[in-house]
Amino acid sequence: MKINENTTVVIRGAGDLATGIAHRLYRCGFKIIMLEVRQPMAIRRRVAFSEAVYDGTITVEGVTARFAQDVAQALKIISENSIAVLIDPEARLLDELKPLALVDAIMAKKNLGTSMDMAPIVIGVGPGFCAGLDCHAVVETQRGHNLGKVIFSGRARENTGIPGEILGFSKERVIYAPADGKIKVFHDIGSIVKAGCVVAEVSGTPVEASIDGVVRGMIRDGTEVFKGMKIGDVDPRQIVDYCYTISDKARAIGGGVLEAILYFMNFAPKRSDEYC
């Protein structure tokens, strides 16, 4: 890669998986600008650069992201070797940002408007994208043999709706809102809890942990939530450090995105002859 080449990568989304991607690309020399909604709702907040929208800055494993009010400030932030986070849910600022690559890591499980003409290299993360049709490549997000694989033609596996298993627990480790309303958090990220412990309440309705473990993820206190919405998760391994470090899944996906970008920079045409 030539030293004077454009190395700016724009990432749609700044949740924990997008943060894993951003962290890996940043460590490899890319300039990163992340696009978020006005009120991000990350669960694993301690490892989500989206928290910069609320707090102004956040550092994850030695890499700092800072909130930018506008494009000029975002460009200044990346020139100072930090990651910039902008509010731009519809990616309307791309013409001003002029990135080498666009990565859609919103994790909406459907395409919310990303297309191949938005940047020289466009990568879709997870279900909802077709490599060769609406992006140049897709990175697999489903746990298992193909996690992090770069797909140059076709789609990632569809969402199963079943959370990944940890120590034999799957759905049991996820916390869902029991009602519509504002959440009041009693046991935030890093807290050790027992099954049956009331970790929060929504509109006066208690929210209990289903298993023993450490609260690894919890939506921001005071957030308006809806019944059935994922609001937290408990890790049965009870290793508090995992709350503050990037997950194996996010690292694998980040590696796949890095591979895809470097592949297109160095070797490949950017359009497949096959379609989804």
Q: Which characteristics define this entry?
A:
276 residues, alpha/beta, Rossmann fold, OB fold (Dihydrolipoamide Acetyltransferase, E2P), 2 domains, 9-stranded mixed β-sheet, 4-stranded antiparallel β-sheet, 5 helices, globular
Walkthrough of the structure:
- It is a single chain.
- The chain folds into two domains: 8-159 and 248-266, Rossmann fold, CATH 3.40.50; 171-236, RNA polymerase II/Efflux pump adaptor protein, barrel-sandwich hybrid domain (OB fold (Dihydrolipoamide Acetyltransferase, E2P), Beta Barrel).
- The chain has five helices and 17 strands.
- It has helices spanning 16-27, 52-55, 71-79, 94-97, 248-266; strands at 8-12, 31-36, 57-60, 63-68, 83-87, 101-104, 121-125, 137-139, 150-151, 174-176, 181-185, 192-193, 198-202, 205-208, 213-218, 224-225, 230-235.
- It has a nine-stranded mixed β-sheet with strand order 3-4-5-2-1-6-7-8-9, sandwiched between helices. Strands 10-17-15-12 form a four-stranded antiparallel β-sheet, with no helix packed on it.
- Helix 1 crosses helix 5.
- The protein is globular.
- 45% of the residues are buried.
